[in-house]
Amino acid sequence: MSMAATRPGLADDLAPGSALSDRMPGGIALSAVLHVGLLTVIVLGLPNFFRPPPPQEAPIAVDLVTIAPETRATHPNPHHPVPHAKPIPPSPGPVAPVPPPKPVPPEASAAPPPS
Fold first, then answer.
1. 11, 32, 35, 63: which could form a disulfide with 4 (CB 3.0–4.6 Å)?
2. pLDDT tens-digit profile of 72-98?
3. Which of 102, 67, 10 shows the shortest CA–CA distance to 2?
């Protein structure tokens, strides 16, 4: 059932032969404006007015020193080298594989095969 038949007085406002959309150009314009606004919000995104500010960069203090020709460590090395230690002999590497012998080509026969 249509809206014009359910509400009294609505059918009287329409002239015979006129469509309901001819009577509401403002509604179509409002719908178009709302659709364009919604599409703009989808494409651009919602604004964020309460975003926290980015953190400020703090300066870092650096002491510049001159490098001496001989540097001295502040901590001694706990692992002293042994004075007369024997060097570790190098381990033998993997043995290279022996390549297989090349195949001998078959001898050519003097007679051609029967056809």
1. 11
2. 667 777 777 777 878 788 887 787 888
3. 10
